[in-house]
Design a protein that fits this description.
alpha/beta; 14% strand; 20 strands; globular; 9-stranded mixed sheet
Amino acid sequence: MSDNTHSPVSGKTDGAPEPAIKNSDTAGQEMELSYAGIGASKGIAIGTCYSFVKETDHHEIQELKHGDINDEIERFLAALNRSEKELKKIERVTTRKLGKGYSNLFQAQIMILHDPVLIDTISSRILSERKPAHMVIEEEFNLYLEKFKTSEEQIFRERADDLLDIKDRIIRNLHVRKLHSWIPEGVIVASYHLSPADVILLSRSNVKGFITDSGGTTSHISLICKSLNIPMVVGLGNLSHKVTTGMPVILDGTTGVVITNPGQERIDWYERKKEEEKEHEESASLTATLPATTKCGVRITFFANIDFKEELQNLTASGAEGVGLFRSENLFTDGTKVPKESEQYSSYLDMAETIAPMPLDIRLFDIGGDKLIYSPVREPNPNLGWRGIRILIDMPEILDDQIRAVIRANVHGNIDILIPMIISLEEIHHVRKVIDRHIEELSREMEQPIDRPGIGAMIEVPAAVEIIDEITRRVDFISIGTNDLTQYTLAVDRNNVVVQDLFEKFHPAIIRQLHRVIAAANRNHCRAMICGDMGSDPLALPFLIGCGLRRFSVVASDIPNLKSLVSHYTIAETEELAGECLTLDSAQAIKARLETFQAAH
């Protein structure tokens, strides 16, 4: 992350362009600076910063005396007990603020505190190696944390935050120090790292917003902030080292921009923008639950991407007409333990019943790299290695359990299966055979007909685009994963800051692929949907509709705004726009044309 010389926010507010970042003319006033992060929870916060620094312990490496070993083990067990009491308190607060769904996050942490393997391993090492408890705890948890943090899958990198919270909590309670949860009212909290527990407890002080160096858009803290309507920006590198308590700050949770020491002109501009966004959201929310139709009456359907079943409680209010993507890998409890068929069945059935008769599209486990599931091979580049459907085919016991769980849970006939990382027709045939086999077996076991789930293919690799005609003739639907499709087409790792500026979703190659895929699906009477970030982009919306796309699966909170925008277009206008964009030869030219269209509508 680097300081920007100008703010990346574009557009106008109240007829006035956003002022450029500049040095203040006022003597002694700090320079106004802008930082680019990732918007994790929408909204604008303007206020003073509170630097939230967690205590860390620095102990000299030492060996326990023989007579101190049993006392050290007792200290460890007492720390587990204190940690459990804290988490139960946080669980109660969470239930009051957000309901039972999110409080389950802390139930899962409490279960880890009771893990007999963890307790026995740490106690045995204290006894045999005569190491202090804090050192053994650090070493044992770090084994798991390293697997999570270095995972190629974003979802597992973000789960590392939960493990880190448990580790820090136990170590702090070894020293019987109180939980730091009081802060001044109405501040913007900046920290290197925040746990779900931190966010829940700090939110009691009417926090205006959160800024973190780490984190992602699907992390637990992001989802909690969305539910609490607290703006949040994550992925800011080392900004927590640059801000101080009392420093004036603006954060924009939609664009991912954070501005320190803003001048009055900047503050006024964001105050107006905040008010306009509030008015727009209030207007959009009035029509959110109504069907989305273009100006000429064509129906556009919006579904939600979800990571956790707790998100279903806000599904209808957002205007979603079902779940277009459930990332089932979130059922992995620690990144290595594959959920049992019974556990999956229970989750899928609960979700399907909650939203029936609306559809639930379950993506098969999109896992990858030897860091998540045991493999004798350590891959030099897991992004181009053993992941997605490749793992599921090579480990049939995992695929069998998931397919059986989905089929059993499909009692309302509203579940479809989505296959990740497709590059060949053989992979589709393989999954279809597995489904056929389990339907036959379950029909015999249950002595009644079984509803067959539909089969969909994720289009996220250029190879799938090249055989899109064949794919769309063999599946019930396709879902375009624009994040990976862009990454693989442009050979740009979106998590690599060195080449991040080359990750361009409006690159001519990408938009031509999208047009080709959507056209093939429509031609072959195969339902087409987009589930990547591009589907949430208001700039891309009219282009995609003009290409023939009628189904979108996006973050639920984005749906009201997208529905509102749809009503301003006619199909003829969007088709003309798409045709023009497909003739342009640069991302800059394409975005300029889309911005002109947006301004006119």
